[in-house]
């Protein structure tokens, strides 16, 4: 069954390029991005994994660990890492799960047989410190993901978690945000003592909290 937003991310134990990982324990008190790619030694995946290595500090700044997965073995991930370094300037500096038996791929519904026979599609799961799934995304093999967008979405998710605000269309960090509808005006006054601009009673705009 598909994993939905708000579900507890299924726990698992996996072999990775950095040893055995018990997923929930490995996440600890922070956030996590679990992302699959279809196959080692393929072009789009090579660019994606190199880029994730380059922007890993941006995830770390936000308290987010990153974890890749494909149905290839550890030996293949390690061999391919050399190509990633050669062509993208950076080899993966985060663990890659080896899932040749597709146990985790099946657990997370990462194989969509009508799109790609036995390989994982490009899935992304953002998981919060409560181990609940906060965001999911699925791209086909031929379309490389925009991982800057994942960072942007994490900024939004973390603002919601900390400050009860939502983010409007095409929002970028530093721009105004919206008080979540679940917060009454009375409670909003306590959180936002400087007030807000109400374009409609349900559209209450405040500067981004820091
Ligand atoms: C790629 O990464 O380029 C790719 C992987 C599997 C199928 C098609 C493309």
Structural write-up:
The protein has 210 residues and is α+β, with helices and mostly antiparallel strands. The protein has two domains: 13-145, Glutaredoxin, CATH 3.40.30.10; 163-206, Antioxidant, Horf6, Chain A, domain 2, CATH 3.30.1020.10. 32% of the residues lie in helices and 24% in strands. The protein has seven helices and eleven strands. The chain has helices spanning 23-27, 43-54, 56-61, 74-88, 103-107, 147-163, 185-191; strands at 13-16, 19-22, 31-36, 64-70, 96-98, 122-127, 133-139, 165-166, 177-179, 197-200, 203-206. It has a seven-stranded mixed β-sheet with strand order 2-1-5-4-3-6-7. A four-stranded antiparallel β-sheet has the order 8-9-11-10. β4 (64-70), α4 (74-88) and β5 (96-98) form a beta-alpha-beta unit. α2 (43-54) crosses α4 (74-88). The chain starts with 12 loop residues before the first strand and ends with a strand. The model has no long low-confidence stretch (mean pLDDT 97). Benzoic acid binds next to α2.
Write the layout of secondary structure elements.
Elements: E1 13-16, E2 19-22, H1 23-27, E3 31-36, H2 43-54, H3 56-61, E4 64-70, H4 74-88, E5 96-98, H5 103-107, E6 122-127, E7 133-139, H6 147-163, E8 165-166, E9 177-179, H7 185-191, E10 197-200, E11 203-206
Parallel strand pairs: 3-4, 4-5
Antiparallel strand pairs: 1-2, 1-5, 3-6, 6-7, 8-9, 9-11, 10-11
Benzoic acid (BEZ) is lined by residues 38-39, 42-45, 141-142.
Total count of domains: 2
Envelope shape: elongated
Radius of gyration (Å): 19 Å
Cα distance, first to last residue? 38 Å
Residue-averaged pLDDT: 97
Largest sheet: 7 strands, mixed
Strands across the major sheet, in which order?
2-1-5-4-3-6-7
**Alpha-beta content class:** alpha+beta
CATH architecture of the largest domain: 3-Layer(aba) Sandwich
Instruction: Tell me the β content.
Output: 15-25%
Query: What oligomeric state do these chains adopt?
Result: single chain
Question: For the record, what CATH class of the largest domain applies?
Answer: Alpha Beta
**Count of helix runs:** 7
H/E element order: EEHEHHEHEHEEHEEHEE
């Amino acid at each position: 069954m598909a994993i939905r937003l708000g579900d507890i991310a299924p726990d698992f134990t996996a072999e990775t390029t950095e040893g055995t990982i018990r997923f929930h324990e490995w996440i600890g008190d922070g956030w996590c991005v679990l992302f699959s790619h279809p196959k080692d030694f393929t072009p789009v995946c090579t660019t994606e994994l190199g880029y994730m290595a380059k922007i890993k500090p941006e995830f770390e700044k936000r308290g987010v660990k990153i974890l890749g997965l494909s149905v290839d073995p550890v030996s293949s991930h390690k061999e391919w890492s050399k190509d990633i370094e050669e062509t993208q300037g950076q080899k993966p500096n985060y663990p890659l799960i080896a899932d040749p038996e597709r146990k985790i791929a099946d657990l997370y519904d990462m194989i969509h047989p009508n799109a790609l026979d036995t390989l994982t599609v490009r899935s992304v799961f953002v998981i919060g410190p409560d181990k609940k799934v906060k965001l999911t995304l699925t791209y086909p093999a031929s379309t490389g993901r925009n991982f800057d967008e994942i960072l942007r979405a994490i900024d939004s998710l973390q603002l919601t978690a900390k400050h009860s605000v939502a983010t409007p269309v095409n929002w970028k960090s530093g721009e105004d945000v919206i008080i979540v509808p679940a917060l009454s005006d009375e409670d909003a006054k306590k959180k936002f003592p400087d007030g807000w601009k109400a374009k409609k009673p349900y559209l209450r705009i405040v500067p981004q909290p820091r």
